[in-house]
Structure to design on (529 residues):
């Protein structure tokens, strides 16, 4: 806001000149390069950032949006000449929390003419559909050819009632298909994987093309294309729905009573909830379940946030090898990689040494090789040559322990900081954790809220995550942590399964007690700074 007030007060005041009888061209000539430079500055900023500062709407965004929207003359120039600034403007004026208080954003004449041309072409015949959602693709030196060619369910739901009256083209999978009013209406719950929530499509027999085709598609699991219009929903549970104009079955469900017939009699996923054990038996279909798809979306967001966090701070991403001869400080039992086992699976002759041990010199790598348990050693060598580095990839540990903390395969983030202290390391870890939590809340709040609402989920999950952002991490020495635990045991406030004394490796119960009862967030280290 200081930047806006101090540097661009004159351009802002000039935005109102057209209302006093001065033309847009006169305004631009009066301002000279000031306004153009200001808009170019903003457009470049929104090329890489979603909002003015941070990862959510702030008062600065509202202030700037109101100022730019004050003149319906100049804002048309903004929308036609500055695509990234226009994307930001449309995001704010369509946001349900702020749209009632912001001026409406007029559509530039060029955009209106384009819509009229598209309608004329549509009357002539089939044309390529261009989604109305502005994804603000950064400019490139080549001519991009890829186009999604459809609107996403997440985007339509996010824009909500601001899109009422707009035409959309959706492609997704039916979660449910049901009839009403003796077959006069067809309701389709459509999901395309972009959101845990689905869009309801209402098709009226006689007014929507393809109703009969959808009725014979097999139901749940069928992939369907929907062309329709966004309307306000007359039912409960959703603000908008799609009034279908044309339905096309892309892929029917072949799970009838007999093999090769259309139907859902043998389709594994029903409308109701499924246990995790059941989903594991249908691995190819579990991404269509709400709980698994939400997990994948959040994991994707956290992986992106990981790279974004370290790249923005000048770290180099190092690709460390998956096949290695290093045990990496005895981090865990390893999976051996070898070519000496026969491909047929039948017992073969494995080369041995004179002492009876396996002769790995005859193996592919000439020595015993395993899947990596950590990329840390490789990152350390790069750090002392290149500076701050990190690796982020899969690791493998052959520990036969069936707990959530002992996985055979998992992804691990391992940063290495050059010329750093222990305090630097702790500060970086705390910043990284909060950055990822903030990114997930800003971009996948719907998935987080879904996890909190299901029986197998965690009630109050959103509040716990926000608590991570709002809380300062307590930093304790190992000695202080042990003394606190012993004190609470002595006073009879807690009883642990494992005895607490100085020198033990603190168990999970000790860690949970410190973080959930004594403090909110704790960092335990060996030495004071």
């Amino acid at each position: 806001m200081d930047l806006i007030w101090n540097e661009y007060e004159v351009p802002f005041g000039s935005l109102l000149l057209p209302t006093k009888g001065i033309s847009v061209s006169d305004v631009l000539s009066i301002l000279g390069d000031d306004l153009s430079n200001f808009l170019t500055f903003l457009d470049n900023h929104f090329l890489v950032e979603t909002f003015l500062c941070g990862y959510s709407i702030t008062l600065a965004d509202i202030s700037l949006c109101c100022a730019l929207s004050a003149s319906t003359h100049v804002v048309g120039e903004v929308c036609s000449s500055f695509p990234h600034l226009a994307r930001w403007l449309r995001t704010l004026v369509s946001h349900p929390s702020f749209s009632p208080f912001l001026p409406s954003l007029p559509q530039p004449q060029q955009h209106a003419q384009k819509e009229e041309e598209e309608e004329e072409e549509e009357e002539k015949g089939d044309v390529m559909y261009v989604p109305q959602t502005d994804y603000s693709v950064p400019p490139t030196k080549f001519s991009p050819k890829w186009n999604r060619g459809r609107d996403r369910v997440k985007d339509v739901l996010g824009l909500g009632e601001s899109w009422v009256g707009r035409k959309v083209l959706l492609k997704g999978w039916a979660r449910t298909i049901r009839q009403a009013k003796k077959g006069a209406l067809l309701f389709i719950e459509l999901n395309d994987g972009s959101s845990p929530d689905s869009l309801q499509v209402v098709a009226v027999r006689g007014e929507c093309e393809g109703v009969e085709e959808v009725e014979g598609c097999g139901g749940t699991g069928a992939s369907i294309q929907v062309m329709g219009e966004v309307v306000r929903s007359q039912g409960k549970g959703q603000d908008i729905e799609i009034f279908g104009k044309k339905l096309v079955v892309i892929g029917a469900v072949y799970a009838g009573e007999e093999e090769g017939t259309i139907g859902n009699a043998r389709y594994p996923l029903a409308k109701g909830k499924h246990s995790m054990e059941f989903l594991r038996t249908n691995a190819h279909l579990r991404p269509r379940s709400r709980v698994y798809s939400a997990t994948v979306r959040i994991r994707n967001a956290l992986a992106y946030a990981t790279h974004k966090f370290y790249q923005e701070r000048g770290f180099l991403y190092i690709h460390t090898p998956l096949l290695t001869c290093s045990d990496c400080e005895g981090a865990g039992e390893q999976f051996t990689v070898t070519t000496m086992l026969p491909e047929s699976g039948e017992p073969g002759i494995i080369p041995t040494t004179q002492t009876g041990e396996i002769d790995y010199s005859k193996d592919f790598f000439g020595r015993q090789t395993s899947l990596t348990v950590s990329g840390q050693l490789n990152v350390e060598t790069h750090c002392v040559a290149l500076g701050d580095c990190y690796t982020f990839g899969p690791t493998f540990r052959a520990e036969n322990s069936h707990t959530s903390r002992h996985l055979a395969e998992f992804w691990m983030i391992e940063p290495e900081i050059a010329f750093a202290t222990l305090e630097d390391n702790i500060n970086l870890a705390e910043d990284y954790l909060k950055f990822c939590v903030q990114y997930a809340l800003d971009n996948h709040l719907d998935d987080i809220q879904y996890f909190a609402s299901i029986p197998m989920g965690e009630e109050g999950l959103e509040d716990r995550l926000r608590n991570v952002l709002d809380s300062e991490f307590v930093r304790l020495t190992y000695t202080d942590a042990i003394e606190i635990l012993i004190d609470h045991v002595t006073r009879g406030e807690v009883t642990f399964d494992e005895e607490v004394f100085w020198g033990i490796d603190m168990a999970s119960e000790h860690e949970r007690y410190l973080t959930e009862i004594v403090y909110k967030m704790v960092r335990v280290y060996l030495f004071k700074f």
Remarks:
- Residues 290-312 form the longest helix (23 residues).
